[in-house]
Amino acid sequence: MVKSVLTNKKKVLLFGPLPPPAGGISVHLARLNHLIKEDFQIDFIDEASVVKKNVFSIKSFNPFVYLNKIFSADVLFIQTGGSALRKFHIIVGKLLSKKIIITVHGYSKVNNFFLLKVDCYFLNLCNQIIVVNPYILKKLALPINKCIVKHAFIPPLMTTESVLPEFILTWFFESKKSGHTIFCANASRLNILNNQDLYGLDMCIQLAKLLLNNYFPISFIFIVSSLENCQDRFAIYQKLIIDLGLQHNFLLINGEFSFVRVIEQSDIVLRPTNADGDAVTIREAIYLNKPVLASDVIDRPTNTLLFKNRDMNDFYNQTIKLLSKKNIDSFFSSTQMDIISNDYRNYYSQLINNVIYS
């Protein structure tokens, strides 16, 4: 274990979105902060859509604070999702002679050779590159000596996860009392990609209707963290749920709730996305020993049950296979991940120190 020093701790500047809203990158960043804060001084440049008190937001457009934070840091740890902003941070960091670690959480399937070369050039300016899946490493042809493939999952500290509000707990209680199998899924926001629902809410609603029509006692909970630029779409889906007569079986809600707590209360976790990086939701579900059904849009963690991307028939058929298991709770019991938060703290603290002292 890297021992914490009472004084003169090295300063790590974290770039990226902090929750709220909750999303894959923001959850990862918040947990990373909790993981290493005993070993380093932590500072932030927050890129989330929601501006928080006492945290510097990139949306403040204050160049003096921005530059001062970078200048005073020993290492920059960039988790930025957007390509242009990521490049900007790298340029400023290099101009100020800073050590840089970067995590690439996802990469589009653009095949423009010039754009790929530009991205590779900027990433190669960093001291350490982390990619969350092998596809990104292959796509960008990154140098092996600088690159690590490391999934974005960091174990949740359950004692710090907020308790679900009473109306959600009541919904779970009533669903369980009725003998329902409970499905859960989530979205950071209701984005559209390739003219399709990125997070597959439309497919979840169709699945619920098909299962109920075939007399399967089920309940669904789908949580949307943010309604930024998607309020109308959220309202359309709410109306569709009512029009299909699903209002007693499908709870679609918006809010900043602990999705780990939702997974904990559910029976099956769904991830019907049409694109993905490394889905923290899936690894959280496996960590909590819950069966997961996900689209095959990318390679998924071992023992994730897959269905063909955007194929409603296969989505339904694979769900039926899952429901046919006599004991859903123990379906993946032999594959529960043996993860200790201390191991993750050791890993990231050592990685950061290696870059600082290289």
Helix content: 25-40%
* DSSP strand content: 15-25%
Secondary-structure-derived class: alpha/beta
The oligomeric status of these chains comes to single chain
Domains (count)? 2
CATH topology of the largest domain: Rossmann fold
Rg, Å, rounded: 21 Å
Mean model confidence by pLDDT: 91
- Please count the helical segments: 12
What's the CATH H-level homologous superfamily of the largest domain?
Answer: Glycogen Phosphorylase B
End-to-end Cα distance: 19 Å
CATH class of the largest domain: Alpha Beta
Molecular shape: globular
Low-confidence stretches: 1-6, 330-339
Describe the overall structure:
Helix content is about 40%, strand content about 20%. It is an alpha/beta fold. The protein folds into two domains: about 10-155 and about 340-355, Rossmann fold (3-Layer(aba) Sandwich), CATH 3.40.50; about 160-335, Glycogen Phosphorylase B (Rossmann fold), CATH 3.40.50. The longest helix is centred in the C-terminal third of the chain and has 16 residues, at about 340-355. Residues about 1-5 and about 330-340 have low confidence and may be disordered.
Please give a quick description of this structure.
This protein is an alpha/beta fold. It has helices spanning 24-36, 63-72, 83-95, 113-124, 134-140, 166-177, 201-213, 231-243, 259-265, 280-287, 312-323, 341-356, and strands spanning 11-16, 41-46, 75-78, 99-104, 128-131, 147-149, 181-187, 192-193, 196-197, 218-224, 250-254, 268-271, 292-295, 305-307.
